[in-house]
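It is worth pausing here to work through a concrete case rather than discussing structure prediction in the abstract. The textbook approach is simple: state the sequence, then state the predicted structure, then interpret. We follow exactly that order.
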Amino acid sequence: MPAIKKSPRIFRSGIVYLPVDAIYPSPVQPRKRFPQESLAELAYSISQYGVLNPLTVRKRGDKYELVAGERRLRASKLAGLSEVPCIVIDVNMEESSLLALVENIQRRDLDFVEEAEGISQLIRLFGMSQEEAARRLGKSQPAIANKLRILRLPADVLDRLRDEDMTERHARTLLRLKTPEEQRRALDVMIREHMNVSAAEEYIDALLALSSEPEQKPGRRTLFVLKDVRVFLNTLTHGLDIMKQGGIDAEMQKHETESELVLTISIPKQK
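Step two, the predicted structure:
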């Protein structure tokens, strides 16, 4: 005797309860990271109070593709739920991708890299221009362009920025450096010194000023003023890091008195 297919359980107008095993994530879901600690917290909340906001899905054959709510779905499975409340909508792939991105942006569920990757995915998959993507997402074209520029940074740099809870402005500051090697070394210093955005921008300003060699008229000097001595110290640290990577065992010692900070830099003589 053939198995009888169980119909979705209707909860109230527009909302149905669907088995969690019948729902699968969208292949174009913009959100990629789901920290286990926050999932566990949400799973506990769901076990106590249930899923307060229904998931959004679209029917695909005998299954349902998730449009919005993957974090809630994962947490529901973690909490041991067999079914979850859903709203079933009739949309195509492009509309589904757009809804998923907009929903995550509005809920601020995406980090700045996921947001940029989601926008890039929309443009690539559906042939949108930056102007069209901006219009559909309710943003300006320059804002879209700035977010996409972040993806020029190496993948490992983007991962470290996110792991250290750094911001989109930190990322844009690193884009001012020309090579991935320079970006990685600068990021090392920014992380080690716990730089906020303002300090990071001054640090990059100092690096660029020290590395540039503008043509100067005879008798003229270029004066560069550092607002914070920490930026100068970080620039020295950055230079020593480069020397160490080149096999030179250079060291810097700091001694602070009431009136001054004394720096001693030791560089071994070449034998």
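Step three, interpretation. Residues 7 and 18 are 9 Å apart (CA to CA). The first helix runs from residue 36 to 49.
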